[in-house]
């Protein structure tokens, strides 16, 4: 049986487990992943609820937007706050500046540690250079690391050593959109390097709801370089440099769900190595992220909030086998990050700064009990130390001594995968995920004149949010209709959810009275639901029909602050279909969601259920050139989808060349 190959192939494909997805796909004859356990696995056998979006599916979507591509996955909901302002929610937990999601590009964190949010418009990746997107639903901190409390989005690009990906794309569209991207790859037997660069300009939607600050025209620019080198047959090293700049108009929950314009600049440096030794496959991943952004909001006399974030992450792991049935992974990690809030202060100093060091140790055990049964366990411990690096405003709620704060937490994952027959498989899983408080929640400080003197503070004494997830997944191949069916159910508990500015008190700073707001743990929430999906292809036709349910129940404080139980649609229907004939490709995506109720300025805004239709018509001019016409929300001129601007119809004409 092919599943028995995992242990025996460990030594011979050590490098492939790190990066050579082409060889792994040839071996397993379907999309595979190495991200959950380090061992090559089919998605149906991985120790998590994982969906893999392939490069073909990305192309067929017709979209240049990562969140729009992710909207194909049952259990994910997309909150759109502007033409390129998005948030991605998993299984009903959907909010502006979503903080429950670990987002990686080739193993590097791309979310920001201020709110633990992802600015999707700023991710430095060429859509045509993505090999696959791995989507994990459920608490996965022990398997994937920090912030994976609700799920994981892992974006895997083509490897310059093993893949020859040379591609360029340009398109024009409504809202005056202009997009251009390219990737060029150069390699030989021992070294591969690639350069990707691109950008986008577009006008913001002209359908505001209430206040809509559009003093920043949305755009995106990026350039990346990555290299992989085989120094010896057993030693491989890799490097990466990225730069990205973007502006977007997005929701800001700290200002009562106000729309604010943000300009964000990020760059990163990464280096790693993989060494196949007698003691196992030893690998290291090290990177430095730097982010600088302004949020231009109403308030504070219109002055921008200037913020600087840095992150240094170092990880060392050893993956080894004990006989053909047992694979182990030991991981050591240290993360050091800082946050400087350099915005306007009514009371000096201008730039308070906090730092945080996290030392982690984790272990994973994959037991191949038989050719049909695997048992995976993982555990991780985090030791978090926060410290005050700057000069705090005197007299505020928390003192410098409060920032000498330590948190010790643990996370775990346990999964049983059973291949019942050649057609049926079952996974039963448990996850305990940790959502550490973000810098805004634990270390922010801002004094403002908002008509009254107001002091906003993070709370360094917060407890982390604990997420516990119980899930069952059943997969069945249906060869009679050339399809695969999947049924998933889950039950999730969230304990000690944090709200950024909750407690209200009267304080005096420099003899001046202030109203003080501080972050707090405000309560619990639980959810139940699941997904049903049937997906297949035959004779040029392809189809993917699904239904997802997420029914949430919040405690009273959570309803007031977030209203998770109504913030995402409880019911979500999708039908994705396509047909290829000769040089032509035709694809459509129909979705229907039920009503939502999100707060805006503290007032619930009800949005009725609505349907949407997206489509693509592609024509291969020759082996190298493809012309495609695509669009979103084609059935409506505008769609009322949230408390934010109405979503306008978009249409694009694009040309892609592969060389």
How do the helices and strands line up, and which of them pair or pack?
Elements: H1 5-8, H2 14-18, H3 21-28, E1 32-33, E2 41-42, E3 49-54, H4 55-61, H5 66-70, E4 76-80, E5 86-90, E6 101-105, E7 108-109, E8 130-137, H6 141-144, E9 151-157, E10 167-173, E11 177-187, E12 191-201, E13 219-232, E14 235-252, E15 258-277, E16 280-296, E17 305-321, E18 326-341, E19 353-368, E20 373-388, E21 405-418, E22 424-435, H7 439-443, E23 445-449, E24 453-457, E25 465-478, E26 483-509, E27 512-538, E28 541-554, H8 556-561, H9 564-567, E29 571-581, E30 584-593, E31 596-600, E32 603-607, E33 610-620, E34 625-632, E35 638-639, E36 647-648, E37 650-658
Low-confidence stretches: 1-17, 298-302
Identify the CATH class: Mainly Beta
Helical content band = under 10%
Overall number of structural domains: 1
- Judging by the overall fold, what is the CATH architecture? Beta Barrel
Major beta-sheet overview = 22 strands, antiparallel, barrel
Q: Which percent band covers the strand fraction?
A: over 45%
